Amino acid sequence: MARSQTPRRKRANGVESRRRILDAAVEIAGERGYEGTSIAAVSARCGLPASSIYWHFKDKDDLIAAVIETGFETWLAAFELPAEETGTPLERVTAMAAGVAERLVDAPDFLRLGLMLALEQRPAEPRGRTVFLRIRATAAQRIAEMIAALFPALGEDAVRSLTVYAMAGADGLFVQRQIHGGTVDLAAMFELHARLLHDAAARMAQEGDERH
Amino acid sequence: MARSQTPRRKRANGVESRRRILDAAVEIAGERGYEGTSIAAVSARCGLPASSIYWHFKDKDDLIAAVIETGFETWLAAFELPAEETGTPLERVTAMAAGVAERLVDAPDFLRLGLMLALEQRPAEPRGRTVFLRIRATAAQRIAEMIAALFPALGEDAVRSLTVYAMAGADGLFVQRQIHGGTVDLAAMFELHARLLHDAAARMAQEGDERH
Amino acid sequence: MARSQTPRRKRANGVESRRRILDAAVEIAGERGYEGTSIAAVSARCGLPASSIYWHFKDKDDLIAAVIETGFETWLAAFELPAEETGTPLERVTAMAAGVAERLVDAPDFLRLGLMLALEQRPAEPRGRTVFLRIRATAAQRIAEMIAALFPALGEDAVRSLTVYAMAGADGLFVQRQIHGGTVDLAAMFELHARLLHDAAARMAQEGDERH
Amino acid sequence: MARSQTPRRKRANGVESRRRILDAAVEIAGERGYEGTSIAAVSARCGLPASSIYWHFKDKDDLIAAVIETGFETWLAAFELPAEETGTPLERVTAMAAGVAERLVDAPDFLRLGLMLALEQRPAEPRGRTVFLRIRATAAQRIAEMIAALFPALGEDAVRSLTVYAMAGADGLFVQRQIHGGTVDLAAMFELHARLLHDAAARMAQEGDERH
DNA sequence: AATGAATGAGGATTCATTCAT
DNA sequence: AATGAATGAATCCTCATTCAT
Fold first, then answer.
1. Could you say which of D15, D32, D59 is where a domain stops?
2. Residue A205's pLDDT is what?
3. Helical residues (DSSP H) of B14-155, grouped into ranges
4. Is residue D168 a contact partner of residue C167, using CB atoms and an 8 Å limit?
5. Which chains touch C (3 or more CB pairs under 8 A)?
6. Whole-model pTM?
7. Residue B23 three-state SS
8. What is the domain count for chain C?
9. Cβ–Cβ gap C120/D32 under 8 Å
């Protein structure tokens, strides 16, 4: 009985701790990249001793990978899929782009980290990089399917090119936002991106048609 | 005569050494980013002891900044400006894009480093980041001027948007290339980028015209 | 049971380790001063790796400050206060001086370090210096009170002068001892110091009296 | 002829350079002690490259020793010896003390350095320390002779004690001045010191007399 | 008389990680 | 579930010194 007087708190709570560590880690890693993220810094920011971090994660690599994973999960969870599959192709491409733009505005930490990892080219690739690239690949797959569905006349190569261009635009606009901050109107830029992609797809579809 | 037989143990040659250090540093920093670049690694790759690196550069920060600076200089030097200012706007935009694409293929180290620095958001900003952003800003200025010249009907905002989009596309395509390697046909993608930019500019110019 | 045979490689014991580090540090710093004290040397003398020192102390500055602090504490603890407040002024001053002389003989490391720190005049003052000066200031206060109590006729200025002279004599004799070693009979010299101080105080008190 | 157009300056001038180096070195060493004085810092303060310092001085030890030597020379040079050997013993002791006090006020760098060296107790004694102690020894000799001359009745031991006490007072007051700055009125304190020394000598001389 | 360049040893400090409790 | 203590390897950088010119 005397025991339960000091209530809850400090009653070791794994889930909570794990979350706190991850929260601290995204912030730091999103600011400073993989190497710039020291366990000591994460420990300082989350208030748990470094050794506790090792109770929850095998090693730094594991921690960063988890950051990417859960970061992506929460990012995805925020998406309310438009579901209704109606409207002109332009409308649908634009709607999609608007969704991405919206998500991009306030979840930059995990994405920034991901991009940094993606740019690195070191011999022993961090697992977080692999995870991030896998996620990107499935995203690209999704985009490719959408393009193919909206413009059935497009050949495989055209779809591939457009997909690459679509991803590139998203990455690039994200980078612009990182660099120039609020100055860049992500919503407007993504609307432009959607429009240009749509026009390009439409033209390519037509050209492809004519050729046959 | 007999004297010059042994090359006399490391004849002091500042310029040469500095170059060797910078060469080693771009490679490493381009692969692993700022934090990932250890002075010891640079020392190992260039053959000079770490303390010698500090003769040529005040600090790691100074070294990285110099890497960005000279990296950009050599990058620019490789550009053969088309000079002849003729052709349709589309031709000219495309030519410009082709030039950039070409440069992007084989000078990725310094650019990758620059992008990584740009993405970082640490409290004490590395000087290299500042330098890189300054360079980018003048590049953006150049692009804006070109767009304004080719499409005089465009308003300020339109030029700004198109410039951001142009830079974003370039960054994004560079990132795609880093991630997917040779799979991405930079020349083709930049041609597409140029075309879309041109079409967008043309349409905006027309819309602006009609409004008045 | 079989288990506890090997003392299990360095059983963690914070308090013990901290003490060992401090012990090693006083010795070295007392011999060579602040800059002359390398963490590596301390590590070597106390047997703990350098990195362990940093578990116990934030920095070298922190370590040296702790050396001064605990050095002074143990030094003070060794004083058996005469308690009995009787005897002629001369007897009491002499008793006090004898006590100090005694302490000065065998606790020179921490004091030598303190004096060296006090003499330094570098822009970024080591924290140990501040601590040492604070301690000295309270010691001086104690001396001033004693003088004022024994010679109530003395004015403020006279007390201040005598206090400065008392401290100066102590410092100076300590220095002589450091330089000339056993040759200097600290006990005798401090007895002389006490006598002269007493005479000066007595005369000043008398002069002050006559003036009114 | 064309040669002498750019006049004097930079016309290598050994004496000048040597002086600049020494000036820089006293300042720095007087602030930070032996170990705290880096050749690089001296080089920065005097404007000559580190390698030039090695042209004028064999090594750091040599430089510091030279600092002590020349520091002492200029210090001594400033003394205008009272020469006239008249007056009561008290007057003469006081005059001497006044002279020392005066010199002590504005030449603290070299003395501070000397004291720091004297306090150090490291295995490999810097040559500067030896030099400083030698100088002190001759100074002590001078004092002893003066005391013996003024109080012929004093025995050897008494002279020795008084000499030690005289030096100790000077050192201690110097230290007080270093610590408390202008607050300490060196002139007044040295006058007190002289008076007390004189009284002690007089009494000792009398006691010695009576004993016989 | 002077100096630019170089260099190995050592400086303080931080790193990721482990382990006994 | 958590943590205080420890640790070897690595970090950046400064040190005193040398040497060819």
1. D59
2. 87
3. 14-36, 39-46, 50-56, 60-77, 89-106, 108-119, 127-150
4. no
5. D
6. 0.90
7. helix
8. 1
9. yes
Is residue D104 domain-shared with residue D177, that is, in the same domain? yes
* Cα–Cα separations (whole angstroms), residue D118 to D113, D121, D161: 9, 8, 20
Token reading at A158: 């055209």
Residues (pLDDT < 70) of chain D are: 1-12, 80-84, 208-212
Report yes or no: B128 and B112 within 8 Å, Cβ to Cβ. no
pLDDT digits (tens, 9 = 90+) for A165-201: 999 999 999 999 999 998 999 999 999 999 999 999 9
Asked if C161 and D189 come within 8 Å (Cβ–Cβ), the reply is: yes
Q: Give contacts of D161 with chain C, Cβ < 8 Å.
A: 188-189, 192
Interface test with C, best of D104, D121, D183, D197 (most C CBs within 10 A): D121
Q: Pick out residues 26-85 of chain A having their CB under 7 A from any atom of nucleic acid strand F.
A: 48-52, 54-56
Residue C131 within a domain: yes
Question: Both A63 and A78 in a single domain?
Answer: no
Cβ atoms of D45 and D24 within 8 Å: the answer is: yes
CA distance B78 to chain A (A): 23
Residue A94's SS3 state is: helix
The H or E element containing residue A25 is helix A14-36
We report the CATH number of the domain holding residue D12 as 1.10.10.60
Distance D175 CA to F12 C1' (A): 38
CB B8 under 7 Å to nucleic chain F = yes
Q: Comparing B107 with B191, which gets the higher pLDDT?
A: B191
Q: Are residues A24 and A102 in the same domain?
A: no
Among B46, A145, D196, CA closest to C204: D196
Task: Give burial (CB, 10 Å; 0-12/13-18/19+) of A180.
Answer: middle
**Residues D24 and D112 occupy one common structural domain:** no
Looking at chain C, the whole-number percentage of residues with pLDDT higher than 70 is: 90
Residues of chain B neighbouring A167 (CB-CB closer than 8 A): 172, 176
CA of B70 to C1' of E11 (A): 32
Q: Are residues A192 and A105 in the same domain?
A: yes
Confidence of residue C211 (pLDDT cuts 50, 70, 90): low
Percent of chain B with pLDDT strictly greater than 70: 90
Distance separating alpha carbons of residues B65 and B129, to the nearest angstrom: 8
Would you say residue B7 lies in a domain?
no
For the stretch A94-99, contacts whose Cβ atoms lie closer than 8 Å and that sit 24 or more positions apart, written own/partner, are: A94/A191, A94/A194, A94/A195, A94/A198, A96/A146, A96/A194, A97/A190, A97/A191, A97/A193, A97/A194, A97/A197, A98/A187, A98/A190, A98/A191, A98/A194
CATH number, domain of D103, equals: 1.10.357.10
Residue nearest F6 (alpha carbon to C1') = C52
Burial class (CB in 10 A: 0-12, 13-18, 19+), D106: exposed
With cut-offs at 50, 70 and 90, classify the pLDDT of residue B178: very high
Domain of D157, in residue numbers? 74-211
pLDDT value of position D206: 85
Q: What is the pLDDT of residue A77?
A: 82
The single residue listed with the structure tokens 């690196």 is B53
pLDDT digits (tens, 9 = 90+) for B21-56: 999 999 999 999 999 999 999 999 999 999 999 999
- Asked whether residue C201 is assigned to any structural domain, the reply reads yes
The string of pLDDT tens digits covering residues A79-96 is 766 666 778 888 999 999
Residue B146 and residue B97 in one domain:
yes
Q: Are B53 and B23 in contact (CB under 8 A)?
A: no
A47 and A115, same domain (yes or no): no
Does C193 reach chain D within 8 Å, measured CB to CB?
A: yes
* C35 CA vs E2 C1’ separation (Å): 31
Last residue of a domain, one of A21, A47, A67: A67
Same-domain pairing of A120 and A34? no
Is B121 part of any domain?
yes
Rounded to an integer, the average pLDDT of B147-152 is 93
